[in-house]
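Blinded run. Sample ID left blank on purpose so nobody reads anything into the name before looking at the predicted structure. Input follows.
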Amino acid sequence: MPFFLIIGSIWLVIYLNKKTHFLARLFFNKNKQDILHRFYTANFNYYTLLDEAEQKNFLLRVTSFLETNQLKINPQISNTNHKVELLVSAAYAQITFGYEDYEITSFTKIIVDPDTFYSKLANHQVKGLTVGTGYIFYSWADFLKGYELKNDNVNLALHELAHALYIDRFRDTENPEWQLWETRAAGVLELEKSNTTTVFFRAYGKTNLYEFWAATVECFFENPINLKKQYENLYNSTAGLLKQDMAERLLLKEKASTIN
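Blinded prediction complete.
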């Protein structure tokens, strides 16, 4: 056997053994896109709101994420069919789907633990954490809960990714869209704090403008139509920053369902 074929074979064995995520197992499977399509259709509601061309783009982004990011999963987590990798990468694709340059380059390391974990930084148990050194931490139990409860305005994955996106794209910039969002958000935040009957944003999201951004992103994806009705200017600024319109997506989906 020629030398380059021997080296190639050795490399391939090492690659397939070292790579534990689902896509590596499907490396030579011609039907891997169909398998991923079926998985996301059954397990990720956002994916079902996309048209056919967008779904193909989504799958390409998921693949890219799994190939370029470091994902460390606690071995205590049961990972049947590599569900952890597929859902973590889907959340990433979801929040950045409006961008052509969709990489959150400052955050390439994601750690997934079974449940809440102790953070030395926060000095207490936490469900998730985004650290400026490039790490995102998730409690898998709470990650799943965020997607199982679809309209409670709480989604751990999107919350932590919103922090990462802010640090990567908007912090310490003079982006006029971000500055407009800050102005509008500050007004809404004060209104929410002063109105004790308002429960649209949860208490933790009102801690400061940084947490309010993450809470707004959660609402944008989980309850977009009501967010737009309640605070249209804030919704429009959030849609501008994320470069996608979730309320419009849902309305189009509902209209298509009615016609069919």
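Unblinding after everyone has recorded impressions. The radius of gyration is 20 Å.
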